[in-house]
Amino acid sequence: MSNFMNTSSSSSSNYGTNGGVLELTLKETLAVIKPSEEDVTARTRVIDELKAIVNQSALQYSSLRGAAVNPFGSYICNLYTRWGDLDISIQIQDPLRRSTALKHLREAVTRRNTFRITKFIPNARILLLVVESNNHNNITCDISIDNYAGVFKSIFLGWEWAKSEGINNSRNGTFTSYALSLLVIFHFQTCEPPVLPPLKELHTGEIVAEGRFHSCDLQDLRNQMTANVEKFKRERLTNTSSLSELFVSFFQKFSAIEMAKDNYFCTYTWKWEQSRGGFLSLLERSKLHIEDPFARLQNAARGVYDTRKISEAFQKTYSMLISASGRDRFSLITNLVRPEIRSQIITRG
């Protein structure tokens, strides 16, 4: 169990002089994937156009009266990449009419020339309408109805590295971006000293009860969570690790992730715990267990079955980072990012 707990990120600086090159390369990568002003403006306009469609449609469809358009996910906290989708939740007045509201929204979008519909899923746990903008960089929007789960998961970020390694794809038995992001949060929580608090300290009220998300004032929730983060920062020692030290210690910590099948990672309590009977009995086919902090009996990694591939990716990357290759900018770029982004980073040098 100790392999996954209280890793000192600064202790990972034993990769010698690699730190300076890695630090620079990571910052170059972030500069390339960070949205430009044009990207930011395009997303703002797409959201405004969706709001206009919903507001105008409310005159015709009672299911959309009083509906609110809430962006969530990486966009809301400025953690999205230039190529990221927009996640939108339409919060409606009557939760019993979610499917009807989505169908009415599809009809309204069809009558406009601003979007084209690429997917429509009206009968699922998360109702989904996927549209693509015709006017603003072909931005894709995943539109759901009353997706409080998505709204509350807004702080999480998928990793460019995972995409480059082919382990950020639930279809091939590896991570969803959400599961991977929970693992990143767990890493920050278990550094020494911790970078993030247990998620239970960010919100003192109850978000989920009996498997359902409570409707609440999202701005009040954000204010409360922000205040609790500031309290955590005041009351605990500051982690002074560099970006590269945190990065290397992440791979060091999870290189043995394949051995974690009988335990689960819990960001709610920031512990790596023995699997509970009820928790595992529902998830016995899963090979990796990452507790969903917003629905604690659910496994956010329930679709993961290729833990060997994941573990090998962590081990390979960690070995590269602490080897001579970790001192070479070109080698770092080649190993850490996807081919379509590599050339943009290399030319910056």
From TrEMBL:
Pfam families: MTPAP-like_central (PF22600). GO terms for molecular function: RNA uridylyltransferase activity. GO terms for biological process: RNA 3'-end processing. Residues 25-154 form the Poly(A) RNA polymerase mitochondrial-like central palm domain. This is Poly(A) RNA polymerase mitochondrial-like central palm domain-containing protein. It comes from Papaver atlanticum.
